[in-house]
Write a structure and sequence with these properties.
mainly alpha
Length: 88
């Protein structure tokens, strides 16, 4: 059996949740229902930038919002930390 580092498992789960947040918010925006606050989306993106960025591109959601330009920066920070500290 392949042993998966616990931190990798956490990162995958958090990024899947982040992707889901962006997908749900896009669906809610199309249906005109309750929306996820932008602050919450940004917080989720901070902890799961891979999923958030994938969600932005996949669902074409929040890609024109100036404040969401920070998401790729979050992603680069995560990549740096993972590589720098050999977290995976």
């Amino acid at each position: 059996m392949i042993e998966v580092p616990p931190l990798l498992l956490v990162l995958v789960i958090v990024n899947i949740i982040s992707l889901m947040f962006f997908g749900v918010d896009k669906l809610k925006s199309k249906r005109g229902g309750w929306r996820i606050p932008e602050v919450r989306l940004l917080l989720v993106a901070f902890f799961g930038p891979f999923g958030a960025y994938a969600g932005m591109l996949l669902f074409k959601h929040k890609i024109r919002k100036l404040k969401f330009l920070i998401v790729p920066v979050f992603l680069l920070i995560h990549v740096y930390l993972i590589v720098r500290f050999h977290l995976i």
